[in-house]
Amino acid sequence: xxxxxxxxxxxxxxxxxxxxxxxxxxxxxxxxxxxxxxxxxxxxxxxxxxxxxxxxxxxxxxxxxxxxxxxxxxxxxxxxxxxxxxxxxxxxxxxxxxxxxxxxxxxxxxxxxxxxxxxxxxxxxxxxxxxxxxxxxxxxxxxxxxxxxxxxxxxxxxxxxxxxxxxxxxxxxxxxxxxxxxxxxxxxxxxxxxxxxxxxxxxxxxxxxxxxxxxxxxxxxxxxxxxxxxxxxxxxxxxxxxxxxxxxxxxxxxxxxxxxxxxxxxxxxxxxxxxxxxxxxxxxxxxxxxxxxxxxxxxxxxxxxxxxxxxxxxxxxxxxxxxxxxxxxxxxxxxxxxxxxxxxxxxxxxxxxxxxxxxxxxxxxxxxxxxxxxxxxxxxxxxxxxxxxxxxxxxxxxxxxxxxxxxxxxxxxxxxxxxxxxxxxxxxxxxxxxxx
Length: 436
Fold this sequence. Notes:
Layout: E1 26-27, E2 30-39, E3 42-49, E4 55-61, E5 67-69, E6 75-77, H1 83-100, E7 113-117, E8 120-126, E9 130-132, H2 133-138, H3 146-164, E10 178-181, E11 185-188, H4 193-199, H5 213-236, H6 253-259, H7 261-264, H8 271-282, H9 292-298, H10 329-340, H11 375-381, H12 408-435
Antiparallel strand pairs: 1-2, 2-3, 3-4, 4-8, 5-6, 7-8, 9-10, 10-11
Helix pairs in contact: 1-4, 3-5, 5-8, 10-12
């Protein structure tokens, strides 16, 4: 019924609202059976058509702030100074009804007839069973699923496309103005242009969107942006009033899903669909889609390409051309590089052969002593000095000192093991620094 004021049930009459017609009242061929709700600008009734008995919904123009109903059920002005505002709203109410009577789209409200009476105007519409998107999402803990979002998008775009074909924009696409019937099908309700017509400043004449093509084009851009906001509301449950001149900040849907991860984990959202909603809402007014076709293309899978996460590949160091000594740090790095890269051919694989190390139980092979050319060579080799009369040592009668035998094979094995231990420690430290 109204952009800023949800439909109120009887008994919760808005402040200043005029009295509704009582059940049993006759309006043309319709008999009122129930008051469905009230707003500050009208009343909604459930009625039966007298000839066919078909239930219909009737809407009455009744701006409670400037008019009221007298004892004869005729609408009168509460102050003569409100006459211009009242008639401006009345003409907008009739024009809106005539515009909606042109269309017969399943996702767009249809007006079957409109007439004037009792000092005001009425229009008849099909009686729909359901609730507004605002009420449905506000009372549900579960966000809309991917299938429900797709139905909502297709339905609203289909209704808007039907309006745009005749040069008409809607201008009031909000959760309270989207009626959800069985099967999660949305129905776009009336424009509610009456609200703007009645409250328009007297010094700034109200401009009817139906007679101003330039304003109708602006309304279309705003309608498409509003559809993206409605989709966001169907997921997040949070609605921010839109401003045609300013960019309203909406919470990114990735953050919304993190907040609703317990209930939204099994809803099967398409990443490109959610990304398109974020893009449509984040675009400044000058960059927003200008037609329904552009808006549909934004939601196509080809339009939104999300970057896929990829692993960072480390550069493979070049294989060293020559062999480095084992005690070189460059040799350790080259060895790690060879372990890190995968072989591409059989010849790239080189077996790592450790030198043969004799064990402690092995007996070293006896080595022939080298020929000594002088006594100094014998002294360096640890051999006993020859004893003679001249003597360089003790007297012949004294016993020579015992010589400790040496094992060169064992010393060589210990040296090789020490070097290999050092290399393995270096390899472990470098590997820990690179990959640890």
